[in-house]
Amino acid sequence: PNIYEVDFDKYYADNDVVALTRDYYAGIGLPIDDIIDGSDLYEKEGKYQHAYCTDIDREGDVRVVANIKDNSYWMSTMLHEYGHGAYFKLNDRELPWTLRTHAHTLTNEAVAMMFGRLAYSPAWLQDVVGISAGERETIEESSRMHMRSDELIISRWIQVMYRFEKSMYENSEQDLNKLWWDLVEEYQLLKRPEGRDKADWASKIHILMSPAYYHNYMLGDLFTSQLYYHICEDVLEEDDCSDVSFAGREEVGEYLIENVFMPGKRYQWNEMIERATGEKLTAKYFAMQYVSS
């Protein structure tokens, strides 16, 4: 629930989220026109309701499935999915096919999440959507708290998913309904409904469709913050990295292509991260951005 006093949807209600996505990525040197042209983005009867990006052949045929509306949720989703798309598309075609992909799922998720976060960034709303400097100032604190809450809440939820799947595979004969709610109570501090004994865990699509995947979101979130600060401080040499949109800065695309996309699977993922940012994966930038801020 949106508990802070800012309605992000209103900023996108009269905008075309596809056009905003296209123009933003072009401005940072990551053109995605061909991916958009090959994607299925609008609602249809009976269509898959989730959103995802897929690399068909590791030769540049990358596609996105979505069900977009002009609101903040789908703006964030479009930025996220085309972050995946740029990573998939801009690989090194000289690499053997097996190495022509991301270093690890978490590194691809990190890029997608870095861009997806921007839909709630006052700097991005000013630079890309066109809100006034005064409006940006008005929403800055609420936006910061919204993003902070979102990141900290999902970090607890990921603990539930990770620990549930790990325990389920270790002992599939246990009472999974009880396991699920035990973990929800411990990590999310939500009390189970009295007398309920239903397979609520089975409603989570990832358990069936993307098993043993959820930890990549948390690891990806750590790398997202690490990558964001490295680009801001070392690539763009910004003095204040509290809220930077990267809009119109082609150096961002150049950096990502050379240091994240093109290396593919040449290196073990933590070596790639160290080569790209100067450090192995660390939680300190996530803490800097969302805990100590």
User: Which radius of gyration do the C-alpha atoms yield?
Assistant: 20 Å
Strand content: under 5%
Percentage of helical residues?
A: 40-55%
Poorly predicted spans: none
Total helical elements: 12
* Structure classification: mainly alpha
Biggest sheet, strands in spatial order?
1-2
User: Which oligomerization state do the chains in this entry correspond to?
Assistant: single chain
Mean of pLDDT: 96
List the helices and strands in order.
HHEEHHHHHHHHHH
Shape: globular
Number of E-type strands: 2
**Major sheet summary line:** 2 strands, antiparallel
The first-to-last residue Cα distance is 22 Å
Can you describe this structure?
This protein is an all-alpha fold. It contains twelve helices and two strands; from the N terminus they run ααββαααααααααα. It has helices at residues 17-27, 33-37, 72-89, 105-116, 122-129, 133-170, 176-188, 205-209, 215-235, 250-261, 269-277, 284-290, and strands at residues 52-55, 62-65. β1 (52-55) and β2 (62-65) form a beta hairpin. It is globular.
